[in-house]
Amino acid sequence: MKAAVLMRHGKAPYAVQVSEVRDPDVGPKDVLVRVRAAGVNPLDTMIARKEVALLVGYRTPLIMGNELAGEVEAVGAEVTRVRVGQRVMCRMPLDGIGAFAEYAAVDQDALAPIPDAYGFEEAATLSLTALTAMQALDLLEGVGEGDTVFISGGTGSLGATAIPLAAARGLQVITSGNARHEQRVRRLGAARFIDYRTQDYADVLHDVDFVIDSLGGDEMRRQLGIMRSGGTLVSLRGGPNGEFARRAGYGPLKRALFTLAGAGADRAAARRGQRYRFVFVHADGEQLDRAATILAGQNVPAQVGPTLPLAQVSEALARVDAGGAVGKIVLVP
Q1: Where are the beta strands (DSSP E) in 140-259?
Q2: Whole-number Å distance between alpha carbons of 306 and 304
Q3: What does the pLDDT average to over 89-112?
Q4: Cβ of 260: how many Cβ atoms within 10 Å?
């Protein structure tokens, strides 16, 4: 089969080439998926630059790609959750990525059926952001009907899934962005929109119950300042801490390392009587199924951007790094 293989880690332009490789092995609980489309994400270029090495130690040569949509080609002897011919989608397991290929072997527990409302290219854009949103929302402690949540970067691909999923839990969603996107994110379920060109969210927001941070760095600290005492900030970019390491089941060495690395964020939150949490999205087919059902039921459109053939994987990765694309870039093997 053809696959996009990262030959070595390093900065852009990335050492990735489309090569003929042997078909994946299918274990008893694995599903062989004929990949019809694969979403391209910032995570893919972070892996290429070896920026997530402490979280997952990927070795090269490595078939790239973290999320896919396709059809079940074959199943292992112990597979019960899917059937041959079924349309499926997934965020691939952390220790078994490889979506940028004609075929992928995926643990059955990572897969979810594609709702009828979505085609393959649409479904290929949903898994990573939908699971990120669900796992971030699950970390918010003590959520009550009508509580407020600020979702930074709400006009991008994360917001397209996080906003409706948060609203479905009874949260009042606040987000910010360019005014040209206001009506779109309001249709997704945002109760309040802040135009960053005319207002600074840190000046106009106070006593927000929860924050989902997709920016990290100084912006994460500013977002702590808009949140009430007792609130929880969940960050996708702020870095792991000890609580994350325990939740993820890392061993003593990494728990100690992440406790030290996340001490600054933990202290900044604790000074305000708040909680800091970090999420690094993992595969979960049942959770993805719930998210996709909600999104399809609310007619939430998938944010499909430029669609490119697998042979143009280098261009796709360069476009991700450049930013500015409307919707998520999709590769079609």
Answers
A1: 148-151, 172-177, 190-195, 208-213, 227-235
A2: 7
A3: 99
A4: 11
Domains of the chain and CATH, by start: 2-128+283-332 (3.90.180.10), 140-278 (3.40.50.720)
Q: Supply the DSSP string of 269-291, one letter for each residue.
A: HHTTT-EEEE------HHHHHHH
177-229 residue pLDDT tens: 999 999 999 999 999 999 999 999 999 999 999 999 999 999 999 999 999 99
CA 288 distance to own-chain centroid = 11
Give the pLDDT confidence score for residue 324 in this predicted structure. Answer: 77
pTM over 0.90: yes
pLDDT at 70 over 80: yes
Can you tell me the distance from the alpha carbon of 205 to that of 233, in angstroms, rounded to the nearest whole number? Answer: 15
Residue 322: HSE in the Cβ half-sphere, 13 Å Cα cutoff: 11
Average of per-residue pLDDT across 139-158: 93
Q: Are 310 and 333 in contact (CB under 8 A)?
A: yes
- Rounded Cα–Cα distance for residues 171 and 273 (Å): 21
Q: Which parts of 201-316 are beta strand (E)?
A: 208-213, 227-235, 275-278, 304-309
| Phi (first) and psi of residue 168, to 5 degrees | -65, -20
Three-state secondary structure call for residue 17: strand
